Amino acid sequence: MKKQMSVVIAALCLGLSASVCGTILYVPSQYATIQAGIGAAAEGDTVLVADGTYTGDGNCDLDFGGVNMVVMSENGPEKTTIDCEGTASEPHRGFYFHSGEDLSSVVQGFTITNGWVGWGAGFYCGVSSSPTIVGNIIAQNTSYGYYGSAGIFCSQSSPTIERNTITGNAATTGFAGGIGAIEFSSPMIVENTITGNMAGLCLVFPNY
């Protein structure tokens, strides 16, 4: 399987910048949690996550820490789930981008569910962080803060959001259960399916 996936990664590298796709780090065979793999990665590495449902410490609130890398599943979002297990008393989200990551930081091929935070329960993109979020299922997440944006929240950021399914997310007191962008954000939103959220998409304040 690893040999086969190495071929897939090599093909992916052809479509990304030359700095991407250095060493492949395997979760969980080499690193027990997704965050452990991320923490061990250098610029341009790939963290490859095997099929399964990932829960608990090290498998939510995932933070690249300013290192540009690819984090992807082996076999797509139907086979690989990040269950944040967030609640009002124990809030958690999927991914937290806040350290200036650029478009060569890629998250691909996960179902991200049960996030529960003030804003950005699936993905939080802030502080000039602009990752690439592609080919994921972002479902059944909840945000309760004023700006909500349970699926993907953008503040002063310009992520590429492409070919994701964003469904069943709720912003209970704010706007945009699906995608929300504020404060000079310029997300590139391409060929996503956004359905059944409370509500779908909202852009406020000067964004362009």
Automatic annotation (TrEMBL):
Key words, A-Z: Signal
Right handed beta helix domain: residues covered: 90-203
Region forming the signal peptide: 1-22
Name of a matching Pfam family: Beta_helix
Top-level taxon in the UniProt lineage: Bacteria
SUPFAM superfamilies, per database record: Pectin lyase-like (SSF51126)
Gene3D superfamilies assigned: Single-stranded right-handed beta-helix, Pectin lyase-like
The name this protein goes by in its record: Right handed beta helix domain-containing protein
